[in-house]
Amino acid sequence: MDFISIPTRSVARAVAWYSKVLGLPESDVSEGELETPNVTLSFWEPEREGLPFVANEAGFAVRVADVAEARAELEAEGVEFIADTWDSGVCHFAPFHDPDGNTVILHRRYAPRTPRKRG
């Protein structure tokens, strides 16, 4: 995975929000992008290209060291979560929306992945 394209109505607003709230650094390579340790977040304005704006409701997950701690920090910043933190049996995750309605998920896998049998 190299980058994720995130729709927005304002690249400047999205970059500022993700930088401030999630603490992600701006890209040294491209304007309108932020970096994570393993993937670039690339923001684009579909309406500038004559396309309808549609928020990504399926979402994307951001790996954090501790979901409960990260959630508490974001809630202190005014972020409203759209569901309780969920424990799947192998991970914790907690979803919220960015200012454009895109779903962002705090995620932490705590159990090792079980190898799938191929056959």
What does this molecule look like?
The protein has 119 residues and is α/β, with parallel strands linked by helices. The chain has a single domain, classed as 2,3-Dihydroxybiphenyl 1,2-Dioxygenase, domain 1 (Roll), CATH 3.10.180.10. Helix content is 18%, strand content 28%. The protein contains two helices and seven strands. The chain has a four-stranded mixed β-sheet, with helices on one face. The longest helix is centred in the first third of the chain and has 12 residues. The protein is globular and about 45 Å long. The model has no long low-confidence stretch (mean pLDDT 92).
Strand order of the largest sheet: 4-7-6-5
Highest-level CATH class? Alpha Beta
- What structural category do the secondary elements indicate? alpha/beta
How many structurally independent domains?
1
Strand fraction: 25-35%
Q: Round the Cα radius of gyration to an integer and report it.
A: 15 Å
